[in-house]
Fold this protein.
Amino acid sequence: MNESTKATFAKLDGTPAHILVILGLFLMLLSPLIMNFKTAGAMQKGAAAEQADEFIQLDLKDLSEKQDVERKQDEKAGSSLSPEDLSRRQQDRQKAYEDKQRELKQKYNAVAAKREFLEAQADLVGTRIHYIATFLGALCLLIGLIVMTVQATGTTQKVLLIILLVVMFSALSGINLNIEGKGNLGGRGDAMRSIIDAMPRSTPPPSSRP
């Protein structure tokens, strides 16, 4: 090790090395929190969109039940009503159903809620900052540990060397930085499955019945 390298390690020894280690640990702990925070936000928007959809379906179900009662009354009075009257009443009920559906979508702001959910979902898929945080955290941690290991002596140096080897093996093996999204830090697989499960599924309106 030349003199310039020794001087560099000497300058980084002590407080700077400790700061690097603490900063590295902080960034590596922050990485999964970033994904958890963004996932929670997306799931909240998904729940809001699903709730709006459920409210719409409940109100439409109530209207559909009332129309079923009217339809049965028309069937009982079928002898006194012409086919044209029956057809016109059915068309009026269908139009009332569709008008009510549009009114409810505006009332519960369903389209905007669904759009916000899809945007949050797309933003979650495109998140990369947790990878950067993990990489920088591992880099700071490794540099700090290397400096402390080189500058230490005796038993302390051996202990630090073991810790350094463990951290290096962890970083190189991809335990904490798994680009497939299955690792403990920065994984997206479980998050995306939760978001997809929370996605609202609209129930199509009932078809017209004679």
User: Anything to note?
Assistant: The two ends are 92 Å apart (CA to CA).
